[in-house]
User: Which sequence fits this backbone?
């Protein structure tokens, strides 16, 4: 469902050994999980369920309290519901996923593609060392809207402010692609790896 090799390469660059797997047994044994994703929300839900990963991920995150980082679609899957396919997500974050509907469609194209900042709205381990001038690479047509203010760790402006980083205990998500965001993205990945 995504650019797994780019994420692997970014983590290897940080000296982290990773395992890419769609095998539920490997997920059960993981000490941390990264759920990247590109594509359609409903198709991703179907694929995770067909591979036997949906229930395993729920157990790892909810019962075992395993730290998880969702990237792009991976973050959106953490929400309760998405307009993309009218599908139910994991519900780890009290949020819904909505399609961008910019007021000025000439200035703000969909999908949102390009470099933007993620302005911190509170304290999150994931944002340690990140400043308001750091830029991250985005490519998406849908965005997460948190119901609870405290779950939105950072917001990004694209016609309006949307939640671009979520943080709730051991559950983290970023709408942008840290693996394509150079030094700032490396900081995000390093912060997640060092989280305990």
Assistant:
């Amino acid at each position: 469902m995504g650019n797994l090799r780019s994420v692997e390469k970014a983590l290897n660059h940080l000296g982290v050994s990773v395992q890419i797997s769609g095998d539920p047994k490997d997920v059960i044994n993981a000490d941390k999980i990264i759920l990247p994703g590109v594509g359609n929300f409903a198709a991703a839900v179907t694929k995770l369920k067909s591979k036997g990963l949906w229930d395993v991920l729920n157990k790892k995150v909810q019962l075992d309290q395993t730290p998880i980082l969702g990237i792009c679609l991976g973050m959106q899957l953490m929400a309760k519901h998405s307009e993309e396919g009218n599908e139910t997500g994991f519900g780890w974050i009290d949020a819904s996923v909505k399609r961008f509907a910019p007021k000025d469609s000439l200035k703000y194209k969909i999908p949102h593609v390009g470099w933007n900042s993620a302005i911190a709205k509170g304290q999150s381990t994931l944002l340690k060392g990140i400043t308001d001038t750091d830029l991250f690479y985005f490519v998406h047509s849908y965005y997460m809207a948190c119901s609870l203010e405290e779950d939105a760790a950072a917001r990004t402006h694209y016609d309006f402010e949307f939640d671009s980083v979520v943080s709730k205990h051991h559950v983290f998500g970023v709408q942008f692609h840290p693996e394509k965001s150079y030094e700032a993205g490396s900081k995000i990945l390093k912060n997640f790896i060092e989280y305990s």
Observations:
- DSSP finds six helices and twelve strands in the chain.
